[in-house]
Design brief:
Layout lengths: L4 E9 L3 E4 H8 L3 H7 L4 E4 L6 H16 L6 E7 L10 H9 L6 E5 L5 H14 L7 E9 L14 E10 L4 E3 L5 E4 L5 E2 L8 E2 L1 H23 L7 E4 L4 H14 L4 H11 L5 H6 L6 H13 L7 E8 L3 E9 L3 H8 L9 E2 L2 H16 L10 H12 L3
Parallel strand pairs: 2-15, 4-5, 4-6, 12-13
Antiparallel strand pairs: 1-7, 1-8, 2-3, 6-7, 8-14, 9-14, 10-11, 13-14
Bound molecules: acetoacetyl-coenzyme A.
């Protein structure tokens, strides 16, 4: 029996605009079927200048409080997982601490490990509660990123932007995590990285796919050793840089259990596909990607899955990966209906490829503009202007 700790509520924030990938394919002279079927992508959310990781993260967290009934006063730990930092030293969690009105007796920090940063935050929050340090308080874990590859590159159709906020506490209503039973894998590789002088990610694309699969094999193998005896996983959510990667992952994992590719593809439709709806409408949101897949699964099937065991796989380039499991709460269905997880997508509108490219050019111009007055306060003066512009009322 595990201590009862896990995800009590979940909320999203997404940028206002998205690009239809059929239109991007046409603009790039590529067959749309490559993006739709070859990569399993449909749309990518694109961020305007006032939609940075801080505003997206703050909006997701504010929605979490509004919808879950929790209060900022309940929070004793706030971790922001991001690989789109706005400052080398000041963590995104400090901006959120101010914007959300979190208590002063609150540990705040940013966790960076490519797409693994959100999971690092979540598992640390779980351990913080299990250790007794929480003393009845809850943790807020926010995963927030803006994915950016060079225009016209192979990675371009796998962009996305958005934030997922998780409320982590004892007796969680959504997903009880199997505490202390994770399978882990790490290795020093150069598959995907964002050097300090680069806004866009650099990636060795096909190698990154192999690194992901190697890490899955390592983490899943480790998990089977520590936790494999429990009841079967009814569903599995994977880190989703693009939908096809989840299909490759599922085949790879089930091959380790002795299943054929055909059997894996048959189970994919039931066990994985429901988790891919939101990722296909938003794209890769890096740290939040696994939790967007989980949100998608809950949105589609929370009621049917009450009491069932779900696998979760997180991969961060560089690399570190973790495989773990959780159980869907006995009344998760009713809570998910009240959370209206996908409602933030209702207000989004299609942007043309020209509008998307103009936003990207605007970004580059913003990086070259002279430092604003008060620049001795580092990024904060510039960033807080952006922050206040982009917050939902
Ligand atoms: N119709 C249907 N399918 C088509 C097609 C067409 N007209 N043309 C090509 N395809 C298929 C290909 O057969 C291929 O399928 P398989 O993967 O099943 O073999 C698929 O479309 C992709 O084609 P390519 O391999 O030619 O793709 P590419 O060279 O353009 O690059 C990519 C693909 C490497 C994933 C690239 O998009 C990329 O670099 N993405 C960013 C990196 C990334 O997401 N890596 C994932 C693992 S790392 C990670 O997960 C961390 C993270 O979040 C970044």
């Amino acid at each position: 029996d595990f201590p009862r700790i896990g995800i009590d509520a979940i909320a999203l924030a997404v940028p206002r605009r998205f690009v239809e990938l059929t239109e991007l394919a046409e603009a790039r002279g590529i067959a749309p079927s490559k993006y739709l079927t070859g990569l399993g992508t449909r749309r990518m959310a694109i961020a305007a200048p006032d939609e940075d990781p801080i505003t997206l993260g703050a909006n997701a967290a504010r929605r979490l409080f509004q919808r879950s009934g929790a209060s900022p006063a309940d929070i004793g730990l706030c971790v922001v997982g991001t690989e789109t930092a706005v400052d080398h030293a000041k963590p995104a969690a400090s901006f959120l601490h101010g914007l959300l009105g979190l208590p002063s007796a609150c540990r705040v920090f940013e966790a960076k490990h490519a797409c693994f940063g959100g999971t690092a935050g979540l598992l640390n929050a779980v351990d913080w509660i299990a250790s007794g340090s929480a003393r009845g308080r809850a943790a807020l874990v926010v995963c927030s990123d803006v994915a950016r590859y060079a225009l016209g590159s192979a990675g371009e159709p796998t962009q996305g932007a958005g934030a997922v906020a998780l409320l982590v506490r004892e007796r969680p209503r959504l997903v009880e995590i199997e505490v202390g039973q994770t399978g882990t894998y790490a290795r020093d590789v150069y598959d995907f990285w964002r050097p300090l002088h680069h806004k866009e990610a650099l990636v060795d694309g096909h190698y990154s796919v192999q690194c992901y699969l190697d890490a899955l094999a390592g983490a899943y193998g480790d998990w089977r050793r520590v936790a494999g005896d429990g009841d079967p996983l009814a569903r599995t959510c994977y880190h989703v840089p693009y939908g096809k990667m989840a299909r490759k992952a599922h085949r790879h994992r089930l091959a380790m259990d002795g299943l054929t590719e055909q059997a894996a593809d048959e189970s994919f439709a039931v066990e994985v596909e429901p988790s891919l709806d939101l990722p296909s409408r938003i794209g890769n949101i890096y740290t939040g990607s696994l939790y967007l897949a989980l949100a998608s699964l809950l949105n589609a099937e929370a009621r049917a899955l009450e009491g069932q065991r779900v696998g979760l796989f997180s991969y961060g380039s560089g690399c570190c990966a973790e495989f773990f499991a959780g159980r869907i709460g006995p009344e998760a269905g009713a809570l998910v209906a009240a959370l209206e997880i996908d409602a933030p997508l209702d207000g989004c509108r299609r942007a043309s490829v020209a509008e998307y490219e103009a936003l990207r050019q605007g970004d580059e111009a913003a990086d070259r503009r002279p430092a604003p007055e008060g620049a001795e306060r580092g990024g904060a003066s510039l960033d807080s202007r952006v922050v206040y512009l982009g917050l939902d009322s």
